[in-house]
Amino acid sequence: MDIKPNIKLFNTLSRETEKFAPIKDGKVGLYLCGPTVYDYATIGNYRTYIFGDLINRIFSYNGYKVKYVQNITDVGHLVSDEDTGEDKLEKGARREGKTAREVADYFTKLYWAESDKLNIKRPTISCRATDHIPEQIEMIKTLEEKGFTYKTSDGIYFDTSKQKDYGKLATLDIKGLKEGARVEANPEKKNITDFALWKFSPKNENRHMEWEPPWGIGFPGWHIECSAMSIKYLDEPFDMHAGAVDLIPVHHTNEIAQNEAIYGHKTVNYWLHGGFLMVDGKKMGKSLGNAYKISDITDKGFDPLVFRYLTFNTHYRQPMNFTWEAIESSKEALSKLYKTVAKMLPNEDDRPKLSTEWGDKFLEAINDDLNMPKALAVVWELVKNDSVDSSTKLATLYKFDEVLGLDIKKYATNLSELMTQDSKLPEIVDRIKLERDVARQKKDWQKSDKLRRNIEALGYRVEDIDGETKIYKI
Ligand code: AMP
Ligand code: ZN
Question: Are 200 and 184 within 8 A, CB to CB?
Fold first, then answer.
């Protein structure tokens, strides 16, 4: 596929779909706001991380060398966007009866384990906020020198009235906000949109994490970490900055404010924002009991890649509605894809050839503002097309899988082995299988799911194919 990259992206800053032009030929710099590691990441968060993964994979697929930076927020992200309330990490520490460091390390480890299961490629650089305190302090000092800051009793604030175009990313109606749209919780702030660069440690609280720069013991605000780390690793200006839509009005708006106050010009060319994930058409919320985790999905017997596949059915900028019916359909679709490929495997040629025609169609879809629903349609059209021989289909699908990340070859090969040979299972696996068959006959799905997990724990995979249960070693 020797095509000059022609990638179109919707840029939140211009509100237009633009043709992508890199700053440096053949290279791109990408920054994605990463997890605040105080609790489990939800499937909503993972929708956004899969979106980041797609940007990374699609640019690599187009031949770019991608430098992908993602932060780990392990300090300073307060429960409220208004610079009030507790630091999420300190809150997590209290909840768990551990130190903030222990909590951060635990959830960071979990984040990587779950990302790996979702085939999210690791970023080139993963950076923790707490490892970059001096860089953040330096930035705040520069802002201070340039006259953009003021001090209140609880911290150092950025004075947004000093910036003519503050709020341009979100086209914030500053006047409207002033008239009361956003409830002001801090009377010491000069402007409603001003935000904390540094917060002093509360007098009545023993914080786990704090530092002592010249203006007082405390911790950095959340926005400054992303400004400091993105520019440290990607330099400025850099190509792309991504996150979900909720970050537009405050977090990314404030990052832009800090950067442009320091550098005097635009520091990021393309701002990309993914839509939210909803559950049963409603906002996800811990109190609603619908803030599902990846483990909630796997507990119900879905492979994490089924969730990955499900996210591709909705364009990244649209809200995505998660339902158990939708993930069930995704499971069926993905299973059908693996099975169809498995059936083609015996016809695989030693020297596989890619189909340029289908390769171009796929490329056109993914380069059209990362249009994955369109890309999936190309995949299925190709799979169903009778005029393309199996060997070409396989080679072309494997190539597409560099973007899809669905491990098509691995799963199809496992299935194909399963379909062709009757491998002998260890006695214990056989016994659980029989017990599971009985549970399934009685439609006791809870028990059958539990037994499936027992089999999986022994290193075997369970597939219910055309009413029959097949088990094979992973
Ligand atoms: P947090 O851990 O809260 O800092 O969020 C990490 C990332 O997940 C951010 O980019 C958020 O914008 C994103 N995010 C949070 N909730 C959702 C959701 N329901 N759907 C999609 N993305 C989300
Ligand atoms: Zn960020």
Answer: no
Which pair of tokens denotes residue 404?
A: 């899809």
Asked whether residue 181 carries a pLDDT value surpassing 60, the answer given is no
Pocket test for ligand 1, best of 12, 36, 45 (most atoms within 8 A of CB): 45
Residues facing residue 66 across a β-bridge = 28
Q: How far apart are CA 469 and CA 125, in angstroms?
A: 42
Q: Where are the beta strands (DSSP E) in 397-467?
A: 460-465
* CATH numbers and ranges of domains, the chain: 8-274 (3.40.50.620), 279-420 (1.10.730), 422-474 (no CATH)
Q: Measured between alpha carbons, how far is 349 from 351 in angstroms, rounded to an integer?
A: 5
Residue 169 in contact with residue 12, Cβ under 8 Å? yes
Which is the closest atom of ligand 1 to the Cα of 45? 8
Mean pLDDT of 76-86: 78
Q: What digits encode the pLDDT tens for the residues 292-342? A: 999 999 999 899 999 999 999 999 999 999 999 999 999 999 999 999 999
Parallel, antiparallel or unpaired: strands 320-322 and 277-279: parallel
User: Ligand 2 is a single-atom ion; what residues have CB below 5 A from it?
Assistant: 33, 226
Cα gap 147→71, rounded to integer Å: 28
What is the chain's mean pLDDT, rounded?
Answer: 91
Shortest-distance atom of ligand 1 to CA 284: 19
Angle at 57 between CA 53 and CA 59, to 5 degrees: 120
Ligand 1, atom 10, residue with closest C-alpha: 243
pLDDT, residue 305, reads: 98
Ligand having the closest approach to the CA of 286: 1
pLDDT tens per residue, range 436-446: 999 988 888 88
Q: What gap in Å lies between CA 250 and CA 270, rounded to an integer?
A: 17
pLDDT value at residue 137: 97
Lookup: tokens for 389: 């021989």
Question: Which has the closest alpha carbon to 34: 91, 93, 87, 74?
Answer: 74
Q: Is 344 left (phi over 0), alpha (psi -120 to 50) or beta?
A: alpha
C-beta separation of 98 from 86 below 8 A: no
- Render pLDDT for 49-77 as a digit per residue (tens, 0 to 9): 999 999 999 999 999 999 999 999 998 78
The predicted model gives 79-93 an average pLDDT of 81
Q: Residue 88 Cα, ligand 2 centroid: separation in angstroms?
A: 15
Residue-level pLDDT at 422: 53
**What is the rounded average pLDDT of the residues 185-197?**
91
Query: In the structure encoding, which two tokens stand for residue 467, read together?
Result: 């009413």
Answer for the pair 58, 366: CB distance below 8 angstroms, yes or no.
yes
